[in-house]
Amino acid sequence: MKILIAEDDATTRKLLRKTVEKWGHEVVEAQDGAEALAMLVQSGAKFMIVDWNMPGVDGIELCRRVRCLDEMGYVYIVLVTINDSKEDVILALESGADDHVSKPFDRKELRARVRAGERILELERALRAENDGLKSKNEQLEELVSIDPLMDIGNRRGLFKAIEKAHHRYSRYGEEYGVVMCDIDHFKTYNDSYGHLAGDRALRAVADAMKGILRVSDEIFRFGGEELVLLTPKQEPKGVTFFAERLRNAVEQVGIAHEKSARGVLTVSCGATVTSGTDVSSKWEDVLQRADRALYLAKASGRNAVRYRGNEAGAGGVPPTDPAAARGKAPAASM
Predict the structure, then answer these.
(1) Could you report the per-residue pLDDT of 279-289, keeping only the tens digit for each?
(2) Fewer CB within 10 Å: C terminus or N terminus of the chain?
(3) Which long-range contacts (CB under 8 A, 24 or more apart) does 320-326 make?
């Protein structure tokens, strides 16, 4: 164990060092309280033997300062003092000392105090390790309950937590974020035609296709059934619409056969929006609902399309994207 000795008297400090080293401990020395405090942080020692009467920062003040060092964890302190009245002992303990030894010290008594401190520090280490283990398991459990096991993406619970944080950052710091809500087109028909096991495989394939184009800062969640929601930070209308179009195209390019789909493959419709204007004083539920309304417009326009909806009155955002235009047909009217 590493023990820091804070003693201004060179003779006593040398005697303490030799005594403690004979017991197999590593010793760090300081000549006063201020030096001891600096060396404690530097050395990471968890046990201190401190003289009460030192110039500048005395033992009592040193105990108080050590107890304010939250980043150090627990440090066991034995105060060595000629002040051994009942009142002095109470003051020492109230200042943060764990134990005290009268000066000049008795070796057997000091060794007993050191051993008692060792036992307490060992117990503290064991409890800390157990708490760290429980914290890690709780974090893993928290992560698991926020993941959809089928699609291996966030679930509705995870979405609500993430969008609440995103909206808080927007309301407080003005960090805009975009929301894209996607729905797999005619998925019930797909399940009826190919079976639910094939439907599960299709859901995973859709999620994988979308995950393949996400930035590190983007997040994807299963909202329910065949609906997915994506959060994308620092977006504006054109950007989030382009992002939604990339999602739509990525799914179509997977080429999952769907004979009852107009394209012959599984496709998705996407509704997009971004925060702006009155969203500062609104709720994240309003933003999510706006994306849902944009999704409704995409499905109403014939599906396999992207629609954007802004939050200001009359704000249509950017022109909707429609794969029909790329196939030589007139794009659906903006809604």
Answers:
(1) 877 899 999 99
(2) C
(3) 320/241, 321/241, 321/244, 321/245, 321/248, 323/248, 323/249, 323/252
